[in-house]
Amino acid sequence: MQAKAAMPSEEHANIAHDDSDSWESWHRRYGHLGFTGLEKLYKENLVEGLTVDENSMPLTQCEACIQAKQAHCAYPKEAED
After folding, report:
1. Is the pLDDT confidence value at 15 over 70?
2. Where is the segment annotated Disordered (predicted)?
């Protein structure tokens, strides 16, 4: 029997990883849910796996939410010539 040592060609490392995400990340994941809704899900443990980085600041302004709340002009009932 001939054995040959196989050395991996890539380096691998095991590191500790914090699974908690920022409030902003959860806001986007839950379809731009408001902070009070997210806070309720988190504090009452209503969602399994929702871990928040305690050092992250709650979301103050979300560009997508601001754009979605903007009013738009009504379309004219008749075309102008």
Report:
1. no
2. 1-21
